[in-house]
């Protein structure tokens, strides 16, 4: 039994960032990288299922990225995932979510997991594509934005809640194996213990190339092309200056005037 | 031939209003000679034809299926429409349902794909879709070389919903036979609000991650009460259980529908939070980070510490 959890190392920007010379991305010197927030929840959900079933199934985390993205894998391994896989090839430099899904589909074929959990979206680009595109390629059952899950390893159906707009939830069953995208709040992700962080260094991480997965450059063409990236013109708030006391006094005036 | 197609969305038999925004999105690139079709997959699709007969819609494609949300069925409909009609664009509203079926439909069609699109344009023959990146700090213009069909999801609140009236032709389409892997089992309505009325409140003060600790929440409850405000919050505060879900403003929480004054304290302003409040005429943002995106939609901004401001505010009420 196995649950595969694709994770992403996301980038936040320094306050004073600059564009790359070709104008199609931000200069990576201005990246602050971290494991995607949503992935803390998908990893946790897999670990909870594993623990509830008595240390079964195996939890395997996988990421598509260069060696810098080992940090994201090690973070997931330190929480308790059993094994990691990192896929990289320079041809993936401009990979979009659909390309990543194509690569992940090959990893699924190789690993033959019983379930795949992804984050509902990434904190940097918020495309909400990778998991459900992966399901489409595999032809697997799927559900997005899952905020409650009842699944026992080996079961042929899972019961879940989809978190809809306005606080409404839909209760749904889905045939397994399935690809589920996991929403924030489904659980309380654990922090890695010092022991876990130490152990993570010893855990196996397989490094795979496109070739290892039977893919070539032509088979990982993206579904979109970045023409340019730029800083939007933003609306500008009228700033209230002064000491905190002066700022609060002006805010109080505004409140009294506007609350009627 | 319709070359622009919107996938209408219904939930439990009720048409979703965001469908009209997706129609408006495609109308923004509709040229002379283009036809815009709207496909509705529902238990009684004819019941929705009237509501979809808005200006600019040339055809309503009625697909009789279940009212249940079945991503497999929607993907099969899109695959059939894609193959039979070779549309330039197929679009849906960027919402929780579309997240489930649009990416899967795109890979099955081998189409172009862009989600959460806030602007569309034509550059000669090229379709250019604009979306945000790096947590809204940049915009990205995307095009789709070599793709005859492009699938899009349209961000809510960016296009004025299509209105007026039209007289589209109505075409019936058989639902493709589909192996549906999901079963609708029921609904769980939002938790009892306990009398908290975010949608009905005219004055809301909300707190976000900046509050840092559960022990700090109480003082904001007290301050809100003394000011005559309803205390709201962003998602992490409700997820942590520090305030009830009924106080959460945003996409998976409440829409501040009646609000005239919204004071956001320690809230960075994620897209999901903005969904619930960016329409408010008077937004005041208090945040230590001058780059926080909340300042780009606020009327007034205070770059400062929410606790210092709150303590000083107490002296005025």
From TrEMBL, chain A:
SUPFAM superfamilies membership: Adenine nucleotide alpha hydrolases-like (SSF52402)
Keywords: Electron transport, Transport
Gene Ontology MF terms in the entry: electron transfer activity
Electron transport in keyword set: yes
Signal peptide: none
Domain Electron transfer flavoprotein alpha/beta-subunit N-terminal stretches: 23-217
Superkingdom, natural source: Bacteria
Protein family membership: Belongs to the ETF beta-subunit/FixA family.
UniProt name for this protein: Electron transfer flavoprotein subunit beta
Organism field: Pontibaca methylaminivorans
TrEMBL record, chain B:
Domain called Electron transfer flavoprotein alpha/beta-subunit N-terminal: residue spans: 4-180
PROSITE patterns: ETF_ALPHA (PS00696)
BP GO annotations: fatty acid beta-oxidation using acyl-CoA dehydrogenase
Residues that coordinate or bind FAD: 209, 234-235, 248-252, 266-273, 287
Signal peptide: none
Cofactor binding annotation: Binds 1 FAD per dimer.
Pfam families for this protein: ETF, ETF_alpha
GO MF terms, alphabetically ordered: electron transfer activity; flavin adenine dinucleotide binding
Cofactor(s) the protein needs: FAD
Protein name (database record): Electron transfer flavoprotein alpha subunit apoprotein
Native species: Pontibaca methylaminivorans
